[in-house]
Amino acid sequence: MAAMNFKSTLLEKIPRSSDTTSYRFSRPADYTFKAGQWFTITVPAPSGPLDHHFSHADSPTEPHIELTTRLTGSEFKTALDGLPIGAEVDIQGAYGAFLFGYDKPKIAFLTGGIGVTPVRSMLRYLADTDGAGRVPGQELAVFYGSMTEDGIVYKDEFDGFEQKISELRVTHVITNPTPEWKGYGGFITAGIIRAELSDPSDWTYYVVGPPPMITAMDRVLAQLEIPQGQIVVESFAGYAS
Ligand SMILES: Cc1cc2nc3c(=O)[nH]c(=O)nc-3n(C[C@H](O)[C@H](O)[C@H](O)COP(=O)(O)OP(=O)(O)OC[C@H]3O[C@@H](n4cnc5c(N)ncnc54)[C@H](O)[C@@H]3O)c2cc1C
Predict the structure, then answer these.
(1) Which atom of ligand 1 lies at the shortest distance from residue 98's CA?
(2) CATH 2.40.30.10 spans which residues of the chain?
(3) What pLDDT is stored for residue 5 in this prediction?
(4) Given CA atoms 180, 186, 190, 191 in this order, what sign does their dihedral have?
(5) Which CATH number describes the domain made up of 4-95?
(6) Residue 72 CB less than 6 A away from ligand 1
(7) Which atom of ligand 1 is nearest to the CA of 52?
């Protein structure tokens, strides 16, 4: 499917955590994409139009386009957040090959922070389509790193996915947990993956997030001796932290 250029308007801003917001835009009827793909958005700014790449946080089953991001104070993010409802932007897409493996018997997602956006898109799509096309008995595991419990983006939705999507387990790993937290603390490690997956070498790993997350997960997957052919990566190049 060839990429499309189109005008879109801001419909809604949805706070997701103290520093993370989703922006919903109108979606033309003829715009198609696959869960896991990304687009380029161009917003007006005082110095001229600015563009950035974002994964679709929305699923193809939803009527809008959604991007979710952490506000960093950059010129682009300030311009994005300053848009009034109804403001017009340019969108170009869809791009990318970070696509759900319907034929893979076991998929583990390794993600953290804002890297969750394409995973949310894929899981929302599976939930909305009853997982049609998945190989029978397919197992899914999500290892989802967040700085704090309050900072888990789309937490309620991920809880719901565990009820709606068969054979899905979500494991949260909190970098700075409160004393009340009963789950894993720190970062996603080979030890956590070994504890949750009895047979880590049988899984295909979908790794997505900012470059430091990708580098960290490269090390973890090397410790687990996972061959490159079982690793699918989407790097949010340009996301510094
Ligand atoms: C496929 C893809 C999907 C993405 N999806 C998301 C998403 O869902 N949510 C999200 O928040 N972000 C996503 N990003 C990252 C996003 O495009 C921005 O780079 C990021 O949000 C930081 O923007 P900023 O305005 O805060 O920082 P900026 O001021 O734009 O840049 C931060 C730092 O990165 C450097 N930099 C900028 N662009 C690049 C580049 N292309 N390569 C290397 N270094 C660069 C800058 O020099 C600066 O040091 C995605 C990126 C890609 C490539």
Answers:
(1) 1
(2) 4-95
(3) 97
(4) negative
(5) 2.40.30.10
(6) yes
(7) 17
Q: Tell me the Cα Rg of the chain.
A: 18
104-126 confidence digits (pLDDT tens): 999 999 999 999 999 999 999 99
Whole-angstrom distance, CA of residue 20 vs CA of residue 18: 6
Asked if 121 contacts 57 with a C-beta cutoff of 8 angstroms, the reply is: yes
Would you say the CB of residue 64 lies under 6 angstroms from ligand 1? no
CATH architecture of 106-235: 3-Layer(aba) Sandwich (3.40)
Find where tokens 């563009």 sit. 51
Q: Where do you find CATH 3.40.50.80 in the chain?
A: 106-235
Q: What is the pLDDT of residues 172-213, one digit of tens each?
A: 999 999 999 999 999 999 999 999 998 999 999 999 999 999
- Closest C-alpha to ligand 1, atom 17: 53
pTM, rounded to two decimals: 0.95
Token pair listed for 216: 């960290």
130 token code pair: 């009853």
Task: Show Cβ contacts of residue 89 under 8 Å, excluding neighbours closer than 6 positions.
Answer: 7, 8, 9, 10, 25, 41, 42, 43, 44, 83
**Look-up of token digits 């993956």:** 193
